[in-house]
Specification:
Layout (H helix, E strand, L loop, with lengths): L1 H17 L15 E10 L7 E7 L16 E6 L5 E6 L4 E4 L9 E8 L2 E8 L6 E7 L10 E7 L7 E8 L6 E6 L7 E7 L17 E9 L1 H15 L17 E2 L8 E15 L2
Parallel strand pairs: 1-15
Antiparallel strand pairs: 1-2, 2-5, 3-4, 3-6, 4-5, 6-7, 7-14, 8-9, 9-12, 10-11, 10-13, 13-15
Length: 282
């Protein structure tokens, strides 16, 4: 019996040692594509003249050394209602800026990017948004009645479809949280959306809200097409999983390559009005 047990231990030891072998996994490399970050956002109560568009190229998943900023492109936005053209200036760091943009609610804007002799275009209408009425904390609105959450309230316009994008930025954290919502079941009523911090830090400690924590909240009015895009993107992001898990479907934005449709870009051209508030937990 003792010899049998010793044999099992020896086999187990060999198995554990064999697990230390290095296995090289070949990860497929996708085609490099232009990435367009073009959110022209107009904060209520401001002129909205200063805007920035960022261009880069996609990179392999594990590659952290490639400089993927795009310089030398031409970037223009046109208001098709007024005919006004806005030429963005290359900052030689991947960003393209302008200081005389004029946002007009319900006007249509066309983005045009010329890069590597190919033309990319996207069209969006500037969507307005209601003002945030108030923000309140609670122990009852979230999933855990022992954890603080914060809710914002706003009046949804009647007799029209509205879509919203919401950003919660805790001042003590590096990365914001995003959400999307429509008025499908609350058209014309006061709407509420809550945020409850259920994350953990690198040591596994809870990062729930505590008195004194400060959260910046932004509510954006967005088009239905952007709502559908960002909802799918957030679903894929928050689904988690390992880096080798398959993505249900490749997610494309509204930027179309007019020169070569097969060489499509990633990203989305958005034109939105937004309102903000800041809440300090008591």
């Amino acid at each position: 019996m003792r010899k049998f047990i010793k044999s099992l231990l020896l086999i187990a030891s060999i198995g554990l040692i064999s697990c230390t072998d290095v296995i090289d996994v070949e990860v497929p490399t996708a085609t490099e594509r232009l990435v367009i970050e073009a959110s022209l956002d107009w904060q209520k109560g401001t002129a909205g003249n200063d805007q920035t568009i960022k261009l880069s190229t996609s990179t392999p998943y594990f590659d952290t050394t490639v400089n993927n900023i795009v310089v030398g492109a031409s970037v223009k936005v046109t208001n098709t209602d007024s005919g006004a053209e806005y030429i963005f200036t290359d900052q030689n760091d991947g960003s393209y800026v302008i200081s005389n943009f004029v946002p007009v609610v319900n006007n249509t804007y066309v983005l045009e990017v010329l890069y590597n002799n190919e033309i990319y275009k996207a069209t969006e209408t500037l969507i307005t948004v209601a003002s945030i009425n108030t923000a309140e904390q609670s122990l009852e609105g979230g999933f855990d009645d022992e954890v603080l959450d914060v809710s914002i309230y706003w009046n949804d316009p009647q007799n029209e479809e509205n879509f919203y994008f919401i950003k919660f930025s805790e001042q003590q954290e590096n990365f914001p949280d995003f959400s999307s919502i429509s008025d499908e079941f609350s058209n014309g009523n006061e709407m509420e959306y809550f945020f409850e911090n259920e994350k953990e830090d690198d040591d596994g400690n809870s990062t729930e809200f505590l008195p004194g924590d400060i959260v910046d909240i932004a509510l954006y009015g967005v088009s239905e097409s952007y709502y559908n895009y960002i909802s799918l993107l957030l679903d894929q992001y928050y689904a988690g999983g390992d880096p080798f898990s398959s993505v249900p479907a490749e997610l494309r934005g509204n930027c179309i390559n007019l020169t070569n449709e097969d060489n499509y870009a990633f990203g989305f051209f958005r034109v939105s009005e937004y309102d903000t508030t800041t809440y300090t937990f008591q």
